[in-house]
Amino acid sequence: MNGGSGDMTLAFELAALKELAYPDAVFTDARQWSEYVGVISEKPTYVVTNFCRKHRIRQDFFSGPRGREESLENVKEQFGTDRHVFIGTEDEDADLAERAGWEYLSVEDAAEAADWDLGDPDPPETTQGGDQREDWP
For the chain (length 137 residues), average pLDDT per consecutive 10? Predict the structure, then answer.
């Protein structure tokens, strides 16, 4: 995937991100050749937000309270790039991408093309004293 069009919107299914060993590094890498990068999921917003916060991922968009298909359609309408690519984990994700007018890549194929490591996500490095916030409940 390296060297591809910078005029691309890239969406990850949350389940696909969870199959990557370093999701934060994947987002950093994807930003080099994608205009917009975000997360689509049927999980509640707080689940996506917590995962992204834990892994220090800054997303340009997320599905929010909408279903995945509506989210992909809205993102495609909002971000008018030349390409819209959805990275998922199963046949249902491929069907969803087709219905929404997106290209589909399995996380395995995307990882191979972009040289990303698959595996359980490693927590990001913590600073001395950990990531605990005193103002957090």
Answer: 67 96 94 94 92 93 86 93 96 96 96 92 54 47
> Where are any strands of DSSP class E within 3-127?
8-13, 36-40, 83-88, 103-106
Q: What pTM was computed for the model?
A: 0.83
Tally of CB atoms within 10 A around 62 = 18
CA dihedral 60, 103, 87, 76 (to 10 degrees): 20
What's the length of the chain? 137
Domain locations along the chain: 22-114
CATH of domain 22-114: 3.40.50
